[in-house]
């Protein structure tokens, strides 16, 4: 059995669960489509906590995502596959999606870039974020828009990018310089609002 067959079989196994456990479909649809807004809300919230480490964490997570997304697009040049619902019969497709290259999963790249960064900066205490990233990846298979390999490669790219960024970016003096200037501007703006 080759990798393609294993990929299809694991996809079918996970995706078919939606037919057997239909009460889980709605939560999976919400996770697959809308957790990106939940993530955006927390990113904004962390940025405005007046905590310098949180700001550096968000900068690193954003850089990790840009790096990971670039790596993902590069990987997509070497491997191409349409979404499972466009190829496999009897796919339980629960959300609408345009047919294009589904390799690797952009959603998984996004969530692992940010969630892994959060986990690294909080010294492993925020394991809930890693679980959320895994859940998002699984949900993309459940709703029929990604293969397991799309998700695994997306997760790998997101993890590698966030670790590389975590180990390098906070040490760059330009980051602390820009952040210090930003905070002084932010302080001036907020002090004027209170006058």
Automatic annotation (TrEMBL):
One of its GO terms (molecular function) is undecaprenyl-diphosphatase activity. SUPFAM superfamilies: Acid phosphatase/Vanadium-dependent haloperoxidase. The chain crosses the membrane at residues 23-49, 56-82, 102-121, 126-145, 151-169. Pfam families: PAP2. Residues 57-166 form the Phosphatidic acid phosphatase type 2/haloperoxidase domain. GO terms for cellular component: plasma membrane. InterPro entries: PAP2/HPO (IPR000326), PAP2/HPO_sf (IPR036938), UPP_Pase (IPR033879). It comes from the Bacteria. Keywords: Membrane, Transmembrane, Transmembrane helix. This is Phosphatase PAP2 family protein. The lineage of its organism: Bacteria, Bacillati, Bacillota, Bacilli, Bacillales.
């Amino acid at each position: 059995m080759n990798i393609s067959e294993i990929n299809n079989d694991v996809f079918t196994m996970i995706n078919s669960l939606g037919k057997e456990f239909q009460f889980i479909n709605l939560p999976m649809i919400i996770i697959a489509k809308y957790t990106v807004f939940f993530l955006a809300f927390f990113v904004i919230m962390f940025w405005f906590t007046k905590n310098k480490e949180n700001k550096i964490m968000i900068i690193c997570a954003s850089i990790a995502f840009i790096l990971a997304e670039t790596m993902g697009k590069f990987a997509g040049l070497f491997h191409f596959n349409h979404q499972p619902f466009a190829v496999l019969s009897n796919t339980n497709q629960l959300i609408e999606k345009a047919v294009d290259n589904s390799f690797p999963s952009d959603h998984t790249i996004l969530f692992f870039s940010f969630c892994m960064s959060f986990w690294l900066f909080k010294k492993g205490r925020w394991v809930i974020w890693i679980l959320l990233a895994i859940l998002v990846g699984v949900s993309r298979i459940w709703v029929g828009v990604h293969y397991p390999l799309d998700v695994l490669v997306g997760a790998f790219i997101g993890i590698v990018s966030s670790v590389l960024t975590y180990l390098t970016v906070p040490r760059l003096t330009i980051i602390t310089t820009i952040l210090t200037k930003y905070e002084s501007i932010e302080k001036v703006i907020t002090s004027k609002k209170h006058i």
